[in-house]
Amino acid sequence: MKPIPWIRCTLGLLLLCTADADSGRKPNFVFMMVDDLGIGDLGCYGNTTLRTPNIDRLALEGVKLTQHIAAAPLCTPSRAAFLTGRYPIRSGMAAHGRMGVFLFSASSGGLPEEEITFAKAVKEQGYSTAVIGKWHLGLNCEDSADHCHHPNSLGFDYFYGTIMTHLRDCQPGHGSVLYFVHAYIPYKALSIGLVSLALLHIRGMITVTRRVVFGFLVLVGVVVSLFGVLVYTFPNLNCFVMRGAEIVEQPYTSENLTQRMTSEAIEFLERYVNSERPFLLFFSFLQVHTGLFASRLFRGRSQHGLYGDAVMEVDWSVGQIMHTLERLNLKENTLVYMTSDQGPHLEEISIHGEMHGGYSGIYKAGKSTNWEGGIRIPGILHWPGVLPAGKVIDEPTSNMDIFPTVLNLAGASIPRDRVIDGHDLLPLLQGQVERSEHEFMFHYCNAQLNAIRWHPPNSNAIWKAFFFTPDFYPENSSACFHTHICFCIKPYVTFHDPPLLYDLSKDRSESTPLSPDTEPQFYSVLEVIRAAVSRHAQSLKPVPVQVSPLQIVWKPWLQPCCSSLSQLCTCERDHQIEKLRNKLKKE
């Protein structure tokens, strides 16, 4: 029997009032998102060889979600969805081509100011808001200082971190992400064009002069030279740390970044010991994205090389944040959420041949795919006295659900002028209801609808239909090693008609697709799914695409620079660096 809605709301309010009776204030929020962390990397999700005691304790004392789904399998769109509670295609943060994320700090695309983030909504309710760590949602629009996509323009009072993601280029000795540009070069079309040109010349149908050949070779030389300059300057132009609107280190030294950002987060929390103002802190780790790094205290400590060392450092940082909340007597009035932005990057191999990607556990594939390994992420929520300890929930939930959950707890109104795809998690977390409000979930690969999940009412089945799937290489693998990441467009995918159908309640690893012979409901399930896709498509409105080739390309006039281009934009004026140096000297 389902609870009557008004009883459900009353129970929730009573629990919140009890939790806040001593403080007389709204709850605080601390969100921790790890970059590219696999669900199989954590002890609380089954890993027995990688130690994550602090995250495991968080799960033991809180609620663990085992079917928590990222709204996209890539960093930029997933983070946009997390902040707004909306599928990224609704905000223009889903690409129509191969590249689905920002590679340059001087791109003009980004999360539009018109979008309502949970930070913007709670700020209007008197909250102090901060994001520390990775942003990856754009910076400028028309000049190098307009900061139209900066965290400050999207509801965050305070920012300390990186505008871009952490890449190989930011870590000396790890090569360059630009070396994988070959995956974007149309070799087949170029080869056919050159061969055709040569045959036409040989047959006398056209004449190719030496001057034309020489000009072509010069052009190739110029392109190769410019590419070399781009690789050389990439770290200086894209790997920098900002405090607010100011660049305080360019390029940054990555080794101790997690230590510094943890220290910054602790300083932020310490400001609210005796404050009546509630806060929201979004701690967005740069780890465990490549190029991998770990500080001296953690290098060589795990059984899984540098990747394992980085995961252990993340776990240490989570422990520091939780210890600080306890020390400051903030723990009882703070909702803590820990997650990843999507699955692990399985194709990541270092220049020395070491595997630098994470682990999906029993789930298939990883980052950039909508197989479960690419979108099923850790989801841990902790709030003593409000959320039950040790509870495990296997209902479908989404990282978009954080948006309405936060707004309802903070007393903010859910926007009515736009579609919000997330649902308030609190009734499910507290046991007021047993089923998720997500009957359907739509899994996008960039702007292409890749798959759909259906959890029918009054049924334990979780159907998942794929309209197309990536072509793995090698074929017997579950990754795309030939392109370094799986793509969403031809010729890198195979389309399915009828769609591939799985029942995740019986086949979590997506090992055997169903057929009309093995599943009597095969066609009826697909009929319901197609109807849901049609209704969903009608809810979409055209918006400017923020991740188009024109928006993501490097624009010199948008380049952030703390000194001058002649000095390769070099500077170091972050007090956290000196603070850490003094700490290391004492040790």
From TrEMBL:
One of its GO terms (molecular function) is metal ion binding. The chain crosses the membrane at residues 177-200, 212-234. Residues 1-21 form the signal peptide. Keywords: Calcium, Hydrolase, Membrane, Metal-binding, Signal, Transmembrane, Transmembrane helix. The keyword Hydrolase applies. One of its GO terms (cellular component) is endoplasmic reticulum. The keyword Secreted does not apply. It holds the Pfam family Sulfatase_C. Its cofactor is Ca(2+). Belongs to the sulfatase family. PANTHER family: ARYLSULFATASE FAMILY MEMBER, STERYL-SULFATASE. This is Steryl-sulfatase-like. It comes from Sinocyclocheilus anshuiensis.
